[in-house]
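A quick aside before the break. I want you to see a complete sequence-to-structure record at least once, exactly as it would be stored in a machine-readable document. Don't worry about memorizing anything.
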Amino acid sequence: MQNRTKIQEIAENRLAEAELLFQNGHYDGACYIVGYCIELALKATICKTLDIDNLFDPNGKYKAEFIKPFKTHNLADLLAYAGLKNKFEKDKIDQRNLISSWAYIKDVLKWSEEFRYQEIGTQKAEETQQLLQSVKIILQWIKKYW
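That is the input. The structure line, written in tokens, reads:
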């Protein structure tokens, strides 16, 4: 991956790609790719938090052992690594849509990179639309910190 700014651009691009897939009836693909929007946004925030321009540079100065935890797809872990767990707990009190959006992504739909192996037709229009809306809300919140 490139620098933090590029990671942010990729995150926003994944959201745009997911919306195009949704508009064209490809709900499984939209659900799969939109999860990467949040994952990348959190990884960009990790870069900022740790003051690292390129966390995943294969020729970089950071050892594999250091960056290994950040290669996870687990959104709850990434939230903590980004230094946002306590901020989330505080902000969710005032922003009810924040907690319901996070819960939908993480607990209801249970987004993971394993979505790529789901049978075609698993995701429906309504749940995909809800996921897209939830991701937009979470992304707006993460942007305050990235």
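Two observations worth writing down. The mean pLDDT is 89. Residues 4-143 form a domain with the Four Helix Bundle (Hemerythrin (Met), subunit A) fold (CATH 1.20.120.330). We'll return to this after the break.
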